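Hey team,

Filing this mostly as a record. A colleague (T.K.) asked me to run one chain through the structure pipeline before their review meeting, and I want the input and output archived in the tracker in case anyone asks later how it was produced. No errors, nothing strange. Just documentation.

Input sequence:
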Amino acid sequence: MRDKAAPTNGMDKATRNKPGDNPQPRKKLGIIGGMGPAATAHFYALVTSMTQAETDQEHLEAHIISRPSIPDRTAYILGKSDQSPVPHIVESGRMLAKIGAGLIAIPCVTSHFFYDELQEGINVPIINMVRETAAFLSQAQIKAAGIMATDGAVRSGLFQNELNASGIRAIAPSETMQARVMDLIYNNIKANRPFDIESFKTVTNELRANGAERILLACTEFSLIRQTSKLSSEYVDVLEILAKRSIELCGYTLIK
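Output structure:
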């Protein structure tokens, strides 16, 4: 497994703001997408539907670069590929900065393994969706959360470290259940095939039995399951959290 880049001192410009803050002047949002494409499209739809606006002109201005060609993040983290996604993501971020983006959102959880390295290479604040999720759970006084994420995110401890730092017990699936998670992500959703909702429920049942008060849909592909299936408030969609914080941090108002 590859080590995370050493933390840099230059940034949490985006996440220093408290939820509800509306920094002025308004910022243009840059979206580094394509990881995967359907999740990116859904993220922009969430931003649009959650923004309080009565005309086109009142909506948040966003620039989207969708690059499905970016090398697989999990494969690189686990040492199964020597193709780093970092240069490609940084290049996209710099392109967005050149056309006026004042804040960057990356609707891909696993890419946040490289957060410090990406922030060092992109001279625009990047919203840390993992950190924002931990803050959301902490404010809700959640003590234990189950994680449904890629092998790269789970094995690197991406969510576990952030949740534990906030006093929240992180519960990962067993090896057998994690294999089901990866099958759902790669062989169902990313492959544009119908997902196995029963397999999804089997994983969440195990997490719940192990003490999870909330189930984190901690891979943006799982947001698409929430979009098409009736899931209770027990499930926390990290893509929705990113969308809400993107709206707030760009200086717009969430719809009531």
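Quick notes for T.K.: Residues 5-11, 13-20 have pLDDT under 50 and may be disordered. Residues 28-128+242-249 form a domain with the Rossmann fold fold (CATH 3.40.50.1860).
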